[in-house]
Amino acid sequence: MIHARLLIIILLLLTTASAWGQQRPGRTKRAPNPYRRAYQQGRFVAPDSTSPQVPFVHFPYPLARGINRATLGVTFTTSPRDITEQTQIDVPAGDLVILRGLTKNLALTGEMKFQFLQNNAMAGLRRTFPIKGRFYGSAGAGLGGWFGMLRLADFNTSGFGFMGAADVAVGFRSSRDLLVTFRLQKDLGLLNRTAVGQTVSDDGRIVSNGYGATVTLEQAFFGRRHAAIGFRALYTNFNWQFWSLYDTFDRNIFYPEVFMGFFL
Fold first, then answer.
1. Signal peptide location in the record (predicted)?
2. Which of 1, 197, 206, 212 could make an SS bond with 185 (beta carbons 3.0 to 4.6 A apart)?
């Protein structure tokens, strides 16, 4: 009798478990990630202009015609003590970088740094070419301008100017989702004009402002988000963020910059 009751109870439990398992909705299976599978097999998916998995704006790789890439972030520049009276200040600015493919190896570049009261924008062209294996290169040039409005010592101070730049870059495509770019640039001053109250100062000479070197990493940040992180070292006699302090300075000064941008 006892064995019969135990058998009935076990059958009831099995029937209930089977019915509950049939009624419970199954989890939706995630689509396999071809990029992760490629990494696990030791193969790297080259950055291409149609895939959002490996976006880039700094890396010297061809971008297909009509394809756009952009990052929006912030850059921090440390003010030198030479021009800020022994006080170093980290000056943040918004940073928008845009890349648009024109032909197979030619792209339109654009960058805007903004602080609202003073801003800087530049546009140019970049030509890319393969070097060997995972190494790529580029050469580019651009023109831009800056303007600013400040109030210093009870005077309305304003200024604007035009500048040019030329650069060369070498990029390395690692075996994972990481792009490394090293860039050298040459900066030219084309025109600077400042006004303090009624006093106007013009400098229309084409002069060499200085040089710069940049190291940039473009990689996955979180989930499907990607970011560009970099360090820039400028050795120049003019930095647009400190245009109002250059009346008594005419020498090259070192400016370190750190920047980070998220892909849009």
1. 1-21
2. 212
- How is residue 74 written in tokens? 């912030």
Which helix (H) or strand (E) is 39 found in, with range? helix 34-40
Element housing 181 (H / E): strand 178-196
- 137 three-state secondary structure: strand
What is the per-residue pLDDT for 242? 79
Residue found by looking up tokens 């990481």 in the block: 178
Separation CA 140–CA 119 (nearest Å) = 22
CB atoms within 10 A of CB 25: 5
- Distance between CA atoms of residues 54 and 45, nearest Å: 8
- 53 vs 14: CA distance, rounded Å: 47
Those residues of the chain that have pLDDT short of 70 are: 1-54, 81-90, 152-153, 155, 175-176, 223, 246-250
Residue 11 included in any domain: no
Helix (H) or strand (E) holding 20: helix 2-23
**Cα 20 to Cα 11: distance, rounded to the nearest angstrom:** 14
Q: What is the CATH number of the domain that holds 85?
A: 2.40.128.100
